[in-house]
Design goal:
It contains 5 helices and 2 strands. It is mainly α. Strands 1-2 form a two-stranded parallel ribbon. The longest helix has 17 residues. The protein is globular. The termini are far apart. The mean pLDDT is 86.
């Protein structure tokens, strides 16, 4: 199941109001955009090339999303984190912190 099918349910747990939610083109659905506006946030979701109506977005802000995505890809290079060998959440979080520190030091 794709994340966009349950994205509206996950947005109910967004703790911050008046923030910007950035997503890729797969999350461009009207119900997702309406839910983001209902919780008091703004969205930065581009339109697909075949959409009839193209929405304007802040492309400089959208490019920041790729930095976050690249960071998670670098973090997944550590096998222990990607496959989640740790059974306890505390230990898993410790390895995520260790991986973040190693990425920061590079």
């Amino acid at each position: 199941m794709h994340d966009s099918t349950i994205a509206t349910e996950l947005l109910e747990y967004t703790p911050v109001n008046k923030s910007i939610i950035m997503a890729d083109k797969a999350y461009r659905g009207k119900n997702i955009r309406i839910k983001i506006e209902d919780i008091g946030c703004t969205h930065c979701i581009p339109s697909q090339s075949n959409d009839k109506v193209h929405r304007e977005i802040d492309w400089w802000q959208y490019k920041e999303r790729s930095n976050v995505e690249c960071f998670f890809q670098r973090l997944k290079q550590y096998r222990r984190i990607a496959t989640r060998y740790e059974k306890l959440a505390v230990r898993f979080l410790a390895f995520v912190h260790l991986g973040c520190a190693l990425i920061w030091l590079k």
